[in-house]
Amino acid sequence: MPEGDTVLQAARRLHSAxxxxxxxxxxxxxxxxxxxxxxxxxxxxxxxxxxxLLTRIEGGLTLHSHLRMDGSWKVYAPGERWxxxxxxxIRAILGTAERTAVGYRLPVLELLRTSExxxxxxxxxxxxxxxxxxxxxxxxxxxxxxxxxxxxxxLDQRNLAGIGNIYKSELCFLLRVTPWLPVGELxxxxxxxxxxxxxxxxxxxxxxxxxxTTGRGRPDERLFVYGRAPRPCLRCRTPIRVxxxxxxxxxxxxxWCPACQQGPSPSP
Length: 268
What we know:
Blueprint: H1 4-18, E1 25-28, E2 43-49, E3 52-57, E4 61-66, E5 72-76, E6 90-95, E7 100-104, E8 108-113, H2 118-121, H3 135-142, H4 150-155, H5 165-175, H6 191-205, E9 241-245, E10 252-256
Antiparallel strand pairs: 1-6, 2-3, 3-4, 4-8, 5-7, 6-7, 9-10
Enzyme class: lyase
Keywords: DNA damage, DNA repair, DNA-binding, Glycosidase, Hydrolase, Lyase, Metal-binding, Multifunctional enzyme, Zinc, Zinc-finger
Protein name: DNA-(apurinic or apyrimidinic site) lyase
């Protein structure tokens, strides 16, 4: 699942491949923008904003994309075989003389004026990996709804941008509380650690191809809880548990240690 650190890495790859280059191929395979032609325009930059990607193009245009659960951008050299998925999953193609960027399974793809980017990302809270990072604002937004479970508050990009389901589970473990604990019931002094800890985790992984939160190198020990049920907790050896958090299509598998983390949890 793409999170703030992986989106930043995707933006770097796209920027390196496209920025400063003239587009010789443009194909947006979504009905609303299928006739849009960007050929002949220079790509100015590719900027991440939380889990969004903003590809800015000459003429005051921005191609906004969001990867959500399984979207991706792949970059190919001339003649290289495209391996990101079957052709029917391609939503965008941006080609220069030297590289071609192909967007697969993009649930959000829209062309808008650069001056109107706020329509796409203006609702986001401070970006953990962006120049607008403001820990005080992030904390205030997290605490605005005391009855809300911490896990849901962390995933709400209006509070702070960049945390996905993996970091949600890992943060709650490191804070020693369950994701179902209401924000207003956090132990004294815990809330102040949330934003700085989240930033440190994402920054530690912004340049890594494989995400690590434990500091351990073994493949089965890179994360504390996420994806580890029912294996033993790395701290206390209690079996890790998993349950969905959220409703309907927004429900996400959530991992925690019932011994190390205090607070409510769903019934088995």
